[in-house]
User: Fold these one by one.
Assistant:
Number 1:
Amino acid sequence: MGSGNQESPTKVPWTPEQKIQAFKETVTAILGLFVVGSTIYLAAKTFTYVGQENTMADAKDVLLLMLGLAGVVVGYYFGRVPADARATQAQDQANTATAQAEQVTVQARAMADQVDHVMDKVAPAASATRGAGAPQIDTAIAADLQHIRDGLRAIGAVSKRK
């Protein structure tokens, strides 16, 4: 049949939070099954009281109470599945947004560093060409570069905030 040297998957131990959650789910499931089971039993038992006015009225009152509880249990379980799915989707979107914000921060810092590098090249060239007859580098360009650099640093700072 098998080759005998198959590796068994390693089991990851449960964290305390997972153990507590499993305990809660087990207790909730047992209580839910008890309530729904009791309601079904009482509904079946109520059919035996047909024709007995006093007993039937009492059985209907108890059944009415149990149907309300059973509705809560069923509503909890049917409402929980879509809620868990939405929570998982929201968590995925939050993780994606966080990753994208980190990418924006890194790119903004890299671009700001590039602007700094260009400004370092422009500053010596501007001072060297002032006395010579070469075309002068406009101070407005340097101011624009500083403005761009400051904007990029602001973008990096905004996306870094949490």
Note: The chain has one domain: 16-160.
Number 2:
Amino acid sequence: MAITNLSDFKIYDEQFQGGMIEMLTQYDQVFNDGSAGTIRLVTDDMLGYYKREAFFQNIGSSIVSRQDTTSNAAVTPHKLSQSELVEVKLFRKIEPTDITYNSFAEIGGDPEGEGSYILGKQVAQIITLEMLNGVLKALVAAVPSTLTNDQSAATPGTIDFAMILDTIAKFGDNHSRVKAFVMHSKNWFDIQKQGLTDGFENIVNGILTAHYVPFFNRPVIVTDSASLLVSGSPNTYRVLGLTDNAATLSKIGDVRMAAQQVLGQEQLVWRTQGEYRYNISLKGFAYDTANGGINPDATALATASNWDKAVASDYDTAGVLLKCK
């Protein structure tokens, strides 16, 4: 059993105990405004494992046609039809953490107050990243082949501006619906290099924030999510071009946390544990309840057959995908 003991801390005599904790380097500013409204984080309240929403499908342009003024023949009528969008609920746990009272006493603190606060800050970030990585897995899996620009087998296959344009072009005359890109930092730095080679200025303004490639006028969100990387020789990467409301993460209630003293051991221990729930929905797709089942894990989220296109037009879906090196 893993328990935080006195030996796990740096004990200083009458010296300042630093307040810095190890911070995660993968940022979470990709929700709502940070993603130009393509990945939304909202609060919802839902019972059960799935949420279903019925909608009317587009009746199609063929309903308007040339009229033959010389005929009075019967015409086959059109009909309205409905389909449904399905979002899925995920249940996740925050595993127990044990801290001895002695360990914090020797650094001038206590596990119930300071220990819980430090742990809470870290867990909050980890929860956000888990949600982000999950929804990126689902998006990569859901985008159909008709909206995918696969350059992963090309030589050299390194991302460039032409690939990005070809990927946007998958939306044809609806290309303006692609509002933002999400990519790994490796791809972003490759784009930077091309920008420098081609003589563009002011492309690079920072790292791991929202960036703008001047002539595409779309933000690029950079995140080193494992969901965008396929390990191999060489590694290949997934770049998402997302539409408005491409993905929605709905928090179901608050994170539940519980804590208690644990007795019967060599030392007094403060134990914390928690759990939380949230839904994932993808624009234009229904989660396949038969294939995917309840409470999907990371593998199920990343399985294409678990996301069924529910709309008739590709242009009404979550976006486009580029595969590159």
Note: Residues 171 and 315 are 6 Å apart (CA to CA).
